[in-house]
Amino acid sequence: MNNKNQEEYEENLSLKTFVVLTRTLQSIKERVEEDIKYLGLNPTEFAVLELVYSKGDQPIQKIGEKILIASSSITYVVDKLEKKDLIKRKPCPKDRRVTYASITTDGTELMNQVFPDHKKALKEILSGLDMKEKEELIEQLKKLGFHAQSM
Amino acid sequence: MNNKNQEEYEENLSLKTFVVLTRTLQSIKERVEEDIKYLGLNPTEFAVLELVYSKGDQPIQKIGEKILIASSSITYVVDKLEKKDLIKRKPCPKDRRVTYASITTDGTELMNQVFPDHKKALKEILSGLDMKEKEELIEQLKKLGFHAQSM
DNA sequence: TTAAAATATCTCGATTTCGAGATAAAGGAG
DNA sequence: CTCCTTTATCTCGAAATCGAGATATTTTAA
Known about the structure:
Two copies of one chain form a homodimer. Chain A has helices at residues 2-37, 43-55, 60-67, 71-83, 105-125, 131-149, and strands at residues 58-59, 87-91, 99-103. In chain A, helix 2 (43-55) crosses helix 4 and helix 3 crosses helix 4 (71-83). Chain A is globular and about 65 Å long. In chain A, strands 1-3-2 form a three-stranded antiparallel beta sheet. Helices cover 73% and strands 8% of the residues of chain A. Chain A has one domain (3-150): Arc Repressor Mutant, subunit A (Orthogonal Bundle). In chain A, a hairpin with a 7-residue loop joins strand 2 and strand 3 (99-103). Chain A has six helices and three strands. By secondary structure, chain A is mainly alpha-helical. The interface between A and B is large, with 51 and 51 residues. Chain A binds a DNA duplex through residues 42, 44, 59-61, 69-77, 95-99.
């Protein structure tokens, strides 16, 4: 029966896609982590700092959505960055439920210093594909992601 | 200066690739987690069980390599599975440093019952791309991963 | 053969993340 | 306006993962 083999092949291919996706991201993450380790920041902290650095003040809520992290975890990460004087909390005057995370002078200086190099490093880490290939990869990944999300 | 724009574009594209990769995997993981939640197993536990189910007895060390998890974490996960009577530890007679994780009768019965459906679910989750596209995606991801790994 | 290096597992304490629920403020229906 | 629902943040305890180092065993090299 050919239908059965076909079905089986597709199932195995799906599992393999999942595994390869996981391993690829893991490899990339390890390199990225190495690249920022010397700052004394872990990837989550760096991601939050980067967000506030490039997008300006962010409601703590929004940070969680972008970084894909639970609300209780953001509180923790923001606490850590605040202790390091890289960001500070600012109450929102219009909506007193909201607290902004805002980058400090120290934070801005740090990022001015390291962010250009970080982007170069990231480019190197992802240079296993050329630009056209990366663009195509992004398209395919989005298809995959949207479908999974909309189930 | 065109070189500068080109450089900038490539850096941004790399960052975007990283972000999309992360989000795609996250979406997929969420669905997979949903699919196995009713078993009372988290993704790591399920991955270990699946490995031992489909590949036979595994040295605890090897499990860590395949599941991409630190050795101290495997001990913890294997403990949990052992408490649930899904796997058991077996000393290796040839090398007394080694302990195998081996699936139990309960574990085998459970997996016989749920694994076919799990594979179908996974196929559905990843059906945002057809088979040819998945094969190509795997190739591209491998290129990306190998390069990152070999830096 | 024996001392040193390598390997496998585990222990322990710390870090990161989570989920449930508390608190406070804002928005909406009647 | 008042009550109810929604939203934003935080607290707290638990779960998952890690790294450093301990222990036991095997392998290697002199």
